[in-house]
Amino acid sequence: MPGPLDGVRILELTSVVLGPWACQILGDLGADVIKIEPRGGDSNRQLGPRANEGMAALYLTCNRNKRSLVLDLKNPAGKEALLKLAETADVLVHNYRPQSMERLGLDYPAMKARNPKIIFCGTYGYSKKGPYADRAAYDDSIQSASGIATLAARMGEEPRYLPTIIADKTTGLAVVYSVMAALFHRERGGIGQEIEVPMYETLISYIMAEHLFGHVFDPPRGEMGYTRLLSRHRRPYKTRNGYIAILPYLNDHWKTFCETAGRPDFVTDPRFVTLSERLKNIDDVYAETGAIVARKTTEEWFALLGKTNVPVMIVNSLEDLITDEHLAATGFWKEMDHPTEGRLRLPGVPVTFSETPGDIRRHPPRLGEHSVEVLREAGYSDGAIRSMIESGATAEAQ
Fold first, then answer.
1. How far, in Å, are 205, 237, 386 from residue 200 at the CA level?
2. How far is the C-alpha of 46 from the C-alpha of 55, rounded, in Å?
3. Helices marked H in the chain — which ranges?
4. Is the dihedral of CA 320, 325, 329, 335 positive or negative?
5. H and E: helices and strands count for the chain
6. Helices 76-86 and 382-391, axial angle in degrees (round to 10)
């Protein structure tokens, strides 16, 4: 059954994680994604364990449901091939700096001249409208610039990066919803357009949803930073034999937890009587809750709280997720046979559609695996394709 984006063709000129992961999501939802790579391929083809050169783990998790076409965009024939493909494409996503696309003659005006209906999405570090526009950007630099790295300092630690590529993936999700919104606009009688999705602005929007806090007001009515999240005590609670996540957040949660734990006095304690008061005294909340939780085992707490309204959950390791009973029941993990890489395990499509479900239709492609196929579809003869291969404008998988 085709996905909701069946019939949409996307040209992807991206590398690393941000663009590839975003375009993989669009591919999971049914789009025909053509991954256009330089002769050396996406740099992530080299990152992580691998069975074969150019097919490393980090590439494999971000590039399914795509076809790989090699084009040297500095070669006139390679550049012309991209412009020709753009004539029938719905979307082009790139993560080149805007100045680079202009120098190549592949910016939005050039694409619009070939196809006025094309949606041209650029995603890179900083908006081209500001003084940071020329700066290179990776996840670490955006975590630093956006304030994420200094959140740890507010918890009494040194600045540090989150151990996940939050900037790339958050911005990738913004690419997905922006592209789909532009497609919807065009379907309603609109036209093609240029989209800019900068990492810096996207991440600041992301963290300021909660951390703008008192500075929502002008003049401010308090400090910046959501107090509960910045407490140095906010972490999984230690039990007698492990760890557990318990969050008696709302007033009903707190009342149930205190009564179940044998501390009904905390329900009327002035520090804890309302959600607002608990937020003001959040370190005390975490400290008292932690002292209570430490007296019983993880299993005992699940027995006590598992059927109440109090949010309670296990603390999984990465390894635990592979055998998690919920993920097994929902069929989250997918396995597929790759023609060169053997058996692969991949995360499934996390969202569900009753009529147009997403799916894994294509394995992550080898570099240039579909060069000849895509160029034929664009109208190139076998002789013209052979000439492009000989000139280095394109290449086939080896």
1. 9, 34, 43
2. 7
3. 18-28, 57-60, 76-86, 98-104, 108-114, 139-145, 148-151, 166-187, 199-211, 227-230, 251-260, 265-268, 275-280, 282-293, 298-305, 318-322, 325-330, 371-377, 382-391
4. positive
5. 19, 11
6. 130
Q: Pick from 111, 373, 89, 65: which is nearest to 394 by CA?
A: 373
In total, the chain counts a number of residues equal to 398
Give the whole-angstrom CA distance, residue 8 versus residue 230. Answer: 43
Position 156 scores a pLDDT of 84
Which pLDDT value is given to residue 9? 98
Closest CA to 73 of 95, 104, 43, 45: 104
- What is the per-residue pLDDT across 14-62, written as a single tens digit (0 to 9) for each? 999 999 999 999 999 999 999 999 999 999 999 999 999 999 999 999 9
| Rounded Cα gap, residues 292 and 29, in angstroms | 46
β pairing state of 312-313 and 243-246? antiparallel
Contacting residues for 355 by C-beta, under 8 A, at least 6 apart: 1
pTM of the model: 0.95
C-alpha 327/C-alpha 313 separation (Å) is 15
Q: Which amino acid is at 103?
A: R
Q: Which 3 state secondary structure label does DSSP give 318?
A: helix
Tell me the per-residue pLDDT of 350-370, one tens digit each, with 9 for 90 and over: 999 999 999 999 999 999 999
153 band by pLDDT with thresholds 50, 70 and 90: confident
Closest CA to 363 of 66, 68, 69, 70: 66
Q: Which two tokens stand for residue 300?
A: 């005992």
